């Protein structure tokens, strides 16, 4: 593999994972919790980044060294477990994708004034075209990279316009006034929960970047992916904080739109349209690609027609949106439920790391195992806690 080509694939995998995470739910969750926690939300972001890195490094390394997709690893750990994991991932991916399609429709509505449903249909067609082209993998890599850079650049502009109290944000990141468990679970679930953490790992596997000889590059790519998503999260948090610190109130029906509009007027609102569309459409691509990657190994027919199944996945998501819609609370709910999937999927990967029939003579670093086990335990406890305490308040 050519060096340039390999570097491009590694970067593409990082952006695929990051832009899969940065969707309408990501924008909504970040601005919603900033309006509630203000500068103390910085602590939630810092905690979630640490958990995200630990989870993703473990998952990507074990997939790379085993040279198998997550569902096949799970079936090797315990027959049938892979089918269960795939079912969880695909259902979560479909639920998220309905929200992603809705977000894309909203972005087009803001930019051009067409109805959100028409915007969703047009966006669905664009997402499908990415997989229709001959070299779909390359097209997907390039598409997510360009859209990712645009999102971050525009959000940086709005952040500077909002003039956030950066000093206060830094202090409260380490000494918060309050610690919100639901916020932590939701952020982790929305970044590495469900299908998202597997997006880049499965992309690298499809591109042939696997085995012990590539572990260094795979690990760097996994951390880069979290870095890209976290940069966007921090800039969006600061933009929202700047608005909240001025005493302005965010619209609970659409928190991210009000951040951009209050910070930069009508220009900001149009920028929100671009950011929302880019965030949503890249998440549509990532969710469809990764969800289908969890079932394509189950039969030769699924493998042969996987590209058309991806297209069907996008088409179904688009169709369902025209019937259901995209409430803000549902996006937060799906993010927290995805946080429940993480302890299961990461736990399976950690068990697999110590099975020679899966990883051969590979020795998983002990510090990484300890890090991973802590994340499994902490996320399991916090997810259950948030379901019993935080979510009832959210839907009260």
TrEMBL record:
Q: Where in the cell is it found?
A: Membrane
Q: Which residues form the signal peptide?
A: none
The answer to whether the entry has keyword Phosphoprotein is no
An MF annotation (GO) of this entry: cadmium ion transmembrane transporter activity
- InterPro entries hit by this protein: NRAMP_fam
Task: Give TM regions.
Answer: 36-55, 76-98, 110-131, 143-162, 182-205, 226-249, 269-295, 307-324, 330-354, 366-388
- Could you mention a single GO BP entry for this protein? iron ion transmembrane transport
| Organism name | Fictibacillus arsenicus
Q: How does it sit in the membrane?
A: Multi-pass membrane protein
> Which cellular component, as a GO term, is one annotated location?
plasma membrane
Q: Does the keyword RNA-binding apply?
A: no
Q: Which UniProt keywords apply?
A: Membrane, Transmembrane, Transmembrane helix
* Name of the protein in its database record: Divalent metal cation transporter
Principal location listed in the UniProt entry:
membrane
Entries under Pfam families matching the protein: Nramp (PF01566)
Source domain of life is: Bacteria
């Amino acid at each position: 593999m050519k060096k340039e080509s390999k570097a491009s694939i590694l970067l593409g995998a990082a952006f695929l994972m990051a832009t899969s995470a940065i969707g309408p739910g990501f924008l909504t969750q970040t601005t919603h919790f900033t309006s509630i926690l203000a500068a103390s939300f910085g602590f939630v972001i810092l905690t979630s980044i640490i958990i995200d890195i630990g989870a993703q490094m473990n998952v990507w390394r074990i997939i790379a060294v085993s040279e198998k997709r997550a569902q096949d690893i799970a079936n090797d750990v315990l027959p049938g477990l892979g089918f269960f994991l795939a079912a969880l991932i695909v259902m979560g991916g479909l639920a998220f994708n309905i929200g992603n399609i809705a977000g894309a429709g909203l972005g087009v509505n803001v930019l051009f004034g067409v109805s959100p449903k028409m915007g969703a249909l047009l966006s669905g067609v664009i997402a499908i075209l990415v997989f229709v082209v001959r070299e779909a993998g390359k097209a997907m890599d390039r598409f997510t990279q360009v859209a990712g850079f645009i999102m971050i650049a525009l959000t940086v502009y709005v952040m500077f316009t909002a003039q956030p109290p950066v000093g206060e944000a830094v202090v409260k990141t380490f000494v918060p006034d309050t610690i919100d468990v639901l916020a932590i679970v939701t952020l982790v679930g929305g970044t590495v929960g469900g299908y998202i953490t597997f997006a880049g790992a499965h992309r690298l596997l499809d591109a042939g970047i696997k085995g012990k000889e590539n572990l260094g590059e795979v690990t760097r790519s996994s951390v880069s992916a979290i870095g890209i998503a976290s940069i966007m999260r921090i800039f969006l948090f600061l933009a929202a904080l700047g608005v909240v610190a001025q005493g302005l109130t965010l619209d609970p029906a659409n928190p991210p739109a009000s951040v951009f509009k209050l910070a930069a007027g009508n220009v900001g609102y149009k920028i929100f349209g671009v950011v929302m569309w880019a965030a949503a459409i890249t998440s549509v691509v990532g969710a469809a690609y990764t969800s289908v990657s969890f079932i394509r190994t189950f039969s030769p027919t699924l493998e042969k027609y996987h590209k058309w199944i991806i297209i069907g996945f996008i088409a179904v998501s688009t169709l369902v949106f025209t019937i259901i819609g995209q409430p803000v609370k549902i996006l937060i709910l799906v993010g927290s439920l995805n946080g429940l999937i993480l302890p299961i999927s990461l736990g399976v990967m950690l068990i697999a790391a110590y099975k020679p029939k899966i990883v051969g003579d590979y020795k998983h670093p002990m510090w990484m195992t300890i890090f991973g086990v802590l994340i499994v335990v902490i996320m399991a406890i916090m997810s259950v806690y948030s379901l019993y305490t935080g979510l009832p308040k959210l839907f009260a």
